[in-house]
Amino acid sequence: xxxxxxxxxxxxxxxxxxxxxxxxxxxxxxxxxxxxxxxxxxxxxxxxxxxxxxxxxxxxxxxxxxxxxxxxxxxxxxxxxxxxxxxxxxxxxxxxxxxxxxxxxxxxxxxxxxxxxxxxxxxxxxxxxxxxxx
Amino acid sequence: xxxxxxxxxxxxxxxxxxxxxxxxxxxxxxxxxxxxxxxxxxxxxxxxxxxxxxxxxxxxxxxxxxxxxxxxxxxxxxxxxxxxxxxxxxxxxxxxxxxxxxxxxxxxxxxxxxxxxxxxxxxxxxxxxxxxxx
Lengths: 134, 134
Fold this sequence. Notes:
CATH architecture of chain A: Beta Barrel
Number of helices of chain A: 0
Region (Disordered) (chains A, B): 70-90
Shape of chain A: globular
Keywords (chains A, B): S-adenosyl-L-methionine
Organism (chains A, B): Rhizocola hellebori
Order of helices and strands of chain A: EEEEEEEEE
Protein name (chains A, B): tRNA (N6-threonylcarbamoyladenosine(37)-N6)-methyltransferase TrmO
CATH superfamily of chain A: YaeB-like
Number of domains of chain A: 1
Largest sheet of chain A: 6 strands, antiparallel, barrel
Strand content of chain A: 25-35%
Distance between the termini of chain A: 27 Å
Family (chains A, B): Belongs to the tRNA methyltransferase O family.
Oligomer: homodimer
């Protein structure tokens, strides 16, 4: 067992699960990532135009679920959650590839983020092949 | 604060951090993902040949670090960790894109995994555009 501590929160017009689109490219809204002051130094190289991977903790997900029926596919068999992007899974970590639109101190505006308002942010990584890697 | 519970462990010939290559494509070894019996149903659609994202908890990382000097770049300035893939970061979640080589019940063999032996596995997701999405 490990403890994960949010480094910020999502600010989004998506207020509840029914409002979320199926995938970012189906039209998720722009959102702000509001980071905690204590992680300021970690953000110092984030710039508008970059693509980032935002990892969230999907705090409204159900953790007891191991199989799901993909949405809109009522006649499909149940699928193991590790072969889906369902938020419902034992450790509900969300993974979102986004483009940075604007940076304002501890607030970072990103495009097309499929995450509900208030969702805790737990990590941010560069897309590989871009920015610094190690 | 949230609690993250491992769903399995990495079995790898990489025994300590100095042995890890910088990126998977620089020649990380094949490894086995050994899952816990309680998540068996979640794995039922994992097949050889698929590409997966494996999320790990980098339990030997330092969580107090916000800036790092990219390895092998001694003259470069310190970089904010959220613009690097350094394991040292506030929530040390590792993200590894791998190909499934073999599935043997709760054990899944994958290629080119840059993760130390014993590293906890916390989630597995399909690469987007492949397998089922939702």
